Amino acid sequence: MLRTLIASCAFALASTSALGQTTVKIAVLGPMAFVQGENHWMGAEMARDDINKAGGITVGGRKLMVELVRADSNEMTSVPDAASAVERVITRDKADFLIGGFRSEAVLAMQEVAMDHKKLFLGVGAAHDELGIRVEKDYNRYKYWFRVSPTKSTDLGRTVFGVLGAVAGDIRTQFKTETPKVAVLAEKAIWTEGLIAAAQKNLPAMKMEMVGLWQPSAVATDVTAELSAIERAGADIVFTFLSGPVGIVTGRQMGERNMKAVAFGINVEAQKDEFWGAAAGKANFVSTLDTYAEVEITPKTVPWVRAFKERFKKSPTYNAATYDAVMILKEAIEKANSIKSDDLVPVIEKLSYLGNAAVVEFDKRHDPVWGPGKSLGIGVQWQDGKKVAFWPPQVKGMQPFRLPAR
Amino acid sequence: MFQDILVTGLVNGSVYALLAIGFSLIFGVARIVNIAHTAFYMLAAYGFYALLVKLGLNFAVAGLLAVAGVTALSLACYKLVIEPLREHEAAVLIATIALAIIFQELMLFAFGGHYLGIPSTLDGVVRIAGVSIPYQRFVILAVAAVMLAATWALLYATRLGLAIRATANDLEVASLMGMNVHRIALATVAFSVALAAIAGVVVAPVYVVDPFMWLGPLVTMLAIVVLGGLGSVKGSLAGAFIIGFVEAITVFALPAGAFLKGAVALSIMVLVLLVRPEGLYGVVFEEEER
Known about the structure:
heterodimer; A: 406 residues; alpha/beta; Rossmann fold; 2 domains; six-stranded mixed beta sheet; 15 strands; B: 290 residues; mainly alpha; two-stranded antiparallel sheet; 12 helices; 2 strands; globular
């Protein structure tokens, strides 16, 4: 009897490894001086408060509170700093889990450090395919990595061409143009290369004419010359792949020139509430892929976005999916009855989590499964100072896409 | 396309000229390689933003206060940081790099890493010969023209200008002739930084304001002053417009290579240096002749 009791205690100790531990420590890694890092932190804070208010995470019959560690990765200016931040939160702050990351170049380095320590790292920001390819190629080393948001670059491309087809359809209907002309404006960066190649291949098949490719720097402060040339080419659509401040300049200068073409594509700056002000209110009709809006992507989307706005007085960007990342950890910990990364990996692999903007399920690369009803994304457009969602049209709450007057 | 290149080249060249002439003057007079020069341009843009958008002042007052504030700051920096190190050129160079990074980090701390927008001084657009030109571009051109004319007047029609040119020509002889070279250096720093601050104020409504906005113009400005000839105001003016037009031509001629405009400008600089090491209008300093 005594032997059974001791064995049971030993088992409980081993299975939870949480005895004596009163919190689950989650490090939130992001560029905290920037919007991306702010959203990482705000999403995680909301999740922490929701979990702790409800009593915490149940492990081995005990309730553990969520404790967040705010870690500035400084990844916008320094990849080594980002890797050091991971090392610091693991060895000094003794974080149990890691979430966040933004720039692919930095997250690739951060991933290595986390994997060295066999720490579960849920990515919420970087889209580069390589992060998932590593999992497939060397599962035993990289299995602790999961990408919660966004979908990988290749899948972002699939969505962006889907929305482009809808935009082109509007142009065909409204302006009686059989073959809309498309100017590709893509910053010079690794992440845009695949998308440019896809545009060159797909646009003729989608009955659109590609009138040219313009590639400014991601930090270009002026695209007057590019826009002049695009105007001369008679483009109907400026298909953008922009992540840096050049996205603001493009929106503003298109507005200042009263361009007849509409901008659609990926414009990371246009996803932020601050975009309208940064573009001095000139960026009407600029549209981009996005993640959150007050539309019913999932039953959780509208109440969560409203709660976020109520608390932080701004809309969430996709980096606020740290909320889902923390919730995924909670669900996995409770299912596995453990806070050991090795125990959680198989549980997360099988998880189907109803998130705030997607039903998150992971494929063999630990990337979110892409598609309608899973992780897809939405199209949003700036209309008179407001960012409105317009795609996919079947989602409740979507509004019509608008084109500049001709 | 010719009209597009003309307008884009003129506007970009004007902004570069405001930056490069000031940089060249400081180098010519005080032998200071002021890496923080474009950081003052960034500070002026932030000052203009804060005064105009946050405090609600009007354009003229916000612009004047921003320029005055940054100019005053540059004088304080000169007295406290640069002057004590002036005998050690390498130390001055490093000190100005440090100043630039400190300013960058202070703005990052105060305003965050957000990209900030400033409303246009003049809204609207005009079409000339098929080219859409926002009025704000005319503001940039007009201000640049006035400031370049003022620079010429200062240098060639005032006693201070004569002293500046004399000091730039030969620091030691100017000193031996009884000129207060420290005071002349101080005046040159103030005037040069004021030019950079004016550039920051006039371009802020066209570009976005962020803590790293000083880095791109710094590289271009260095290319211009080396191309034109270190210390030569005339060279900087010529270099600014050459680079402005080369960049515009690159974007129009190589749309998919628009990101290369900086590289093309730097390549031209290297080519000129191979043929003419002192630059287009280079001043060969005595110490280099020896």
